[in-house]
Amino acid sequence: MLxxxxxxxxxxxxxxxxxxxxxxLKYSTVENYWICKDGQWFKHGNPSTLTPTTSCGIYTITxxxxxxxxxxKNDTMIIFVYFPNKLFDSNMVDCSKVxxxxxxxxxxxxxxxxxxxxxxxxxxxxxxxxxxxTTIPEGVKIQKLTIENGVAxxxxxxxxxxxxxGSCRVGSIIAEITETLKQFSTVKSVIISxxxxxxxxxxx
Length: 204
Hints:
This protein is of the alpha+beta class. The chain has a domain at 76-194. The chain has helices at residues 2-28, 58-74, 111-120, 125-129, 167-182, and strands at 33-37, 40-44, 76-83, 99-106, 142-148, 151-156, 189-194. The strands form 3 sheets. Strands 5-6-7 form a 3-stranded mixed beta sheet, with helices on one face. The protein has a two-stranded antiparallel ribbon with strand order 1-2. A two-stranded antiparallel sheet has the order 3-4. α3 runs antiparallel to α5. The termini are far apart.
């Protein structure tokens, strides 16, 4: 009788151990996790963690970013601005000699105005390192720009005359503005005015 009881107790203990082992395996298995499907989180097995709070659907986000980048590229255009360059023309023998550098701008039908606005910003830090500089004073504004019959007439603010002296600098200023506008096929010549004046401006 005693032997039978011991055998029964032993069998019960073994059964309990097996049950515990199975439960442990069930709840510790690597198959219990959250999966992302169609933009939502779903249980796989019985994960012990709560529903993830991070966004689900990274591929959609990535696609959206790529599409946005493509749209930005499609909405820009390349124009040129003209500056003197001390590396390309170290002796500055011809003060009217200017050189091109590219600028990327938002697409616009007013390309002449946009090109001048970029010119009046002056060279970027990268362009300065490449030798570009400007002789145009800071703060110059475009008051009016018209292009008719191949002639571009640009009226600029009084800042263009600020501390401007010497025939070399005057020639360089005129060249920067003129060549920047003449990159466009509709412009053959340029007339510059300041506050409507053309006769007494940009004197050496």
